[in-house]
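Reviewer has doubts. Consider these tokens.
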Amino acid sequence: IVNSIKDKNQALIYLEEVKEAHAIVVKELFGEANDLNEVLNDIFVEVEWALDEDPTKYDFVYDQIVGIGELVSTRILHYGLAKAGFATTWLDARDIVKTDELYREGTVLWDKTLSNIQSKVKPLLTKTNFVVTQGFIGSTLDNNTTTLGREGSDYSAAIFSYGLEATSMTIWKDVPGVLTADPKKFNNVTKLNRLAYREAIEMTYYGAKVIHPKTIKPLQNKSIPLHVRSFLHPEEEGTLI
């Protein structure tokens, strides 16, 4: 966090490096003739604003900065899908998911969030094939960015699934599903094909990190099946919870 003019200048140098890295990705994906960098620069401006905040409010400033990655990456994804001819809409999750002011571990204000899903998200799904939005981030009632803590992106998906009364939810991981142990620490681990919600929650409490219990709870409350699948092997079925 910025504590001096020198720190701010260094932070701005890092920011320029991040912007340039994204500009290279955009150029490689879409060529020189695109207007996406202008859109991304408008998002990066939020970082510059955050650097002017009181440095003693560490958690607040942290959330204003760290969530920018979600906004930028989903903009790139949305732009690519549109170029490929897919009818989709980009949605700022901060307009939907409302939380209290506990920065870095925001508690969802369910009544307001569910109202937003009904009034803002459902109509979008009737107009386009799907919506591209972000995980991990929300905002306070004063529209300050908050983050939802560890595994916040999966939790975001569960929030939307709950509010939309989804028929199922899928999360994509670098493992083939829910395993009996951490494959980085143990050999001969086994993939579990099916789990009850309660069993999955118990596993997370005993150290399984593939899913956070707060992700499962909204799904359990409405009996929404959760598929845990591998983005490395998307043809495989994974685990059904």
About this structure: The longest strand covers residues 169-173. The chain has eight helices and seven strands. The CA atoms of residues 201 and 213 lie 5 Å apart. The chain has a mean pLDDT of 93.
